[in-house]
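During the practical work, I worked with a single protein chain and the tokens that describe its fold, as given directly below.
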Amino acid sequence: MRTQTIVAMCAVLTIVTACVGGSESEDSSFITLTGFGEGDGDSSAETDEGDGDGDGDPTTTGDGDGDGDPTTTGDGDGDPTTTGDGDGDIPIADMIDNFEDGDGALIPNNGRQGYWYSFNDESDGSTQTPAADMVLPESGGAGGTSMAMHTTGSGFAVWGAGIGVDLNNMGDPEGGDGIKMIYDASGYTGIVVTAKGNGQVRGVVQIEATIPPGEGGTCALDCDPHGKILVLSSEWQQFTLPFDQLAQEGWGTPAAWDATTVVGLQFKVAANANFDFWVDEIGFF
């Protein structure tokens, strides 16, 4: 840094002559790390001293060591934001789905069973593809693979829309939704997903305590699942959902995170969003 060089020269040459230009600092650089509010009533910025602890409170920027860790940005409400770094360096230990089989079911690894579904608030005049009875992957996967899951839509004015999959649901032979049963994911650190699209998507990991009894859960009112915001771009990027960083949004019944009672995975958009996003290469790490 230029300022440091000049100061060092001053220290060495003090006994010979006076240092000229010691106040020069136009080439000096600095980095400011701040948290920012997300419309939750707490818009005050917080400044991190670079602790890199990934706790979701301040903005944490990767150190550039090439380790593939994503950039994590806290939004000030306990629901951190994840921006993929595009390196794709987080290996998948147990694949949930890569969509290469072309069907609407996840890969039946390690006792998992379930089907992909679309969901929305059913606002008048709204549209979403794929339709609820035709949730299948499309051509054009991440990293040159063949298939991925894709959804688009608009007009949802109440709470939004999304796609999801249960990890332990046999389905209903009579055509119903079936019962969501728990899946023990405590042997993993979190979930990794590769995604692209427009705007923000909230990656959600449902547990038994955050789904209603009618779906097999224990949440009686205002079910607020744990999740994290993913900031998408037009390019495929890898994102992580570490279990120890997932948080409820704060509007519903509080529930402690419990990886032994995972029920399903969802990708959701908020109300009044015109959305178009893809997900692929989803698994535990």
In short: Residues 1-31 form one domain.
